[in-house]
Each structure stands twice: as structure tokens, then as C-alpha cells.
Amino acid sequence: QAVVDFERLGEHAAAFQGHDVGFCCLGTTRAKAGADGFVRVDRDYVAQAAELARAGGCKHFILQSSRGANAQSRFLYLRVKGEVENLVQAVGFDHCTILRPAVLLCRRQESRPMEWIAQQFLGAVARLFPTAYSVPVEVVARAMVACALQPGEGKVKVLENRAIHELGKA
């Protein structure tokens, strides 16, 4: 594990050398970082990390994005996620896998009251419609590993929430 300063990511290029597969789940919230900070973390840092990974020999980059990602969206969150998907694809990996999970179900150390309420509701809904509105982070992680072990055909593969569930439970 290498600890890097994302504000000086270029100085840490050695940490990105010699890896066949790159996994990226980096992100923050607008509430925590402000609009500019959110864009910097969720788009700029991710794109720069992808470029460093490719320069270091990475062949397959696996990016956790978001359901509804769209570079043309009116909503900042979805627009930034769409923009970073486009930037990562443009880096030129042999394989690029993009996962677009719905609401992530997880336990956090920090307090996010509205997210907690949403998770409680969606956790209950998930019993009736397990792949519709949410996905446990453990399932996303297993799906990411499965993608690394069997990248499949094609240069770019996009997995929506249902496919993440199927792959993460296989």
C-alpha cells in the first residue's frame, strides 16, 4: 500500500508502476468537499490516477462510477461521473471496465443522517427488489475482482446495477 498526496499525484508516479490492473473507487461528496472539491476529487484525481496507471503499464482499469452517469447531465454529480468515465476511456487502456452501481449500502464511520435514512429505506426495498435501487459495497468489490480475473471481450465494458449484482454474487 502506498500513501499518496493527491494534490501532488505526479510526484508519486512510482506507486503506479508495474501493475496490470487498476481499481478506482475514489470519491467524495459535495457536502464534504464543496462543488469545486467534489470535481477535483471525483474527476480530476481519478483521471490523473488513470493516466499515471497507464503510463506505469496498467492494461485494465476498473472504475466505480454511478448509476445515471452522463457528461451532459444538468446535475453536477451525474455530470462529473460521466465526464470522468469519458476521460478514463480516453486514456487508452487495453480494457476499461466501468461499474455503475445504484445507492451503495455500507456502514460508515462518519455521520450522514440523510444517507442513513435512505439506506434504511433501500435496505428494506432490497428485500423485495434486490437489484433495483441499491447494492452492498461488498457485492461491488466482488464484481470488480471478477472483472479483473475475467476481463472479457472488448475495450470498454459498462456494468449497470443488475449486472454488478449478478457478477458480485457469482
Automatic annotation (TrEMBL):
CDD domains registered for this protein in UniProt: CC3_like_SDR_a
GO MF terms held by the record: catalytic activity
Superkingdom, natural source: Eukaryota
SUPFAM superfamilies from the UniProt entry: NAD(P)-binding Rossmann-fold domains
UniProt domain NAD(P)-binding: residue ranges: 4-150
A GO-annotated cellular component: cytoplasm
Name the UniProt record assigns to this protein: Protein HTATIP2
Protein source organism: Setophaga kirtlandii
